[in-house]
Amino acid sequence: MIADLNYSNLVNPLLRYLHVLLLITVAVGCSSPPTVHTQELYVFGTLVSISAYTSDKVAFEEAVDAVDASFQRMHRDWHAWKGEGELVQLNRAIAAGDTRVVDPFLLPLIEQAKMLSGKSMGLFNPAIGRLIALWGFHSDELQVGTPPSRDEIEALLQYGPEMTDLVIDGGQVSSHNRQVSIDLGAYAKGVALELAIKQLAAHGITHAIVNAGGDLCVAGRRGERPWRIGIRHPQGRGVIAGMEVEDGECLLTSGNYERYREYQQVRYAHIIDPRSGYPVEHIASATVVARDGGLADAAATALSVAGPSQWLEVSRNMGLKQVMLVDEKGRIYLTPEMEQRVMFQEKPDEIIIGRP
Length: 356
Ligand code: AMP
Ligand code: MG
Hints:
Bound molecules: adenosine monophosphate, magnesium ion
Number of strands: 17
Shape: globular
Structural class: alpha+beta
Radius of gyration: 25 Å
Strand order of the largest sheet: 1-2-6-7-10-13-14-15-17
Number of helices: 9
Strand content: 15-25%
Low-confidence stretches: 1-11, 20-30
Helix content: 25-40%
């Protein structure tokens, strides 16, 4: 009995001591100063860099693993022409004149893309997948042969594939027009970036930037200051301007220079004007800042088609406030809100301010 008492007298303080020691160790571990951690993923044919300002490296790594798994699923189910994912199967059903029950992972994208296509006056038109394929952009390789003939283009254009041809009834999708083939290449990256930010937040990572080759969404701040980013120069000369991006914003840029096919020294850009069936020539790049990543991405593509003559009309219709266009002569077009924010590397020769 006495021995027992002595034993517990000894053990209890020892346990208490170990307990306190453990708490101190955990507290010290958590209070190590936050810093920037970065990881890179290769997905959607591009390098995606994820940075977070955090003291919890383990949580960050777990969050990146979760984002990576989601990106792989997006790549499978949102891809227009690779593999056997949801979108490939939907396109096949449309071509066969069938109705398809679309997975909830894809369905909201089809719905929002349809809505955005209407707002963009049809300049963002993801229903022109066949035209995009005809120009050779459903391929990982750079196309070098003769471009498609006018007859081939007209043969597809005559069917006028549009998102309004889609009938979305609950989870079921069908089309009046079998020539519709959906390509979300102009829009899905913006959706993916925004979802990645949300997924990081669900893992407690609330200060982060997800950057896919200059297309990005951010959360929170980089410590004392906002996240700072660079907008790609359309002539491939690094960065044209810098900007501080605020919590919850996305910045997407669309450009002629990104992908193209080349024939007899002529470059045919991967952005197609759905009205003519030909690649756009007049614009070099369009940048949009918005809180909705999918909207920013679709809008940047629509504005590349719209060009300087229609950018204000399209911006107004799509509810855009922060837009920058660079034309093939290097002239810069800015909305007043965007002008307040961009910091040019070199003073541009000509800036045109336009209010949507
Ligand atoms: P982005 O870099 O966001 O402008 O997307 C360009 C991609 O969108 C192209 O590679 C095509 O797959 C697709 N695309 C091209 N033109 C259009 C268009 N007018 N509307 C919708 N998607 C398009
Ligand atoms: Mg786009």
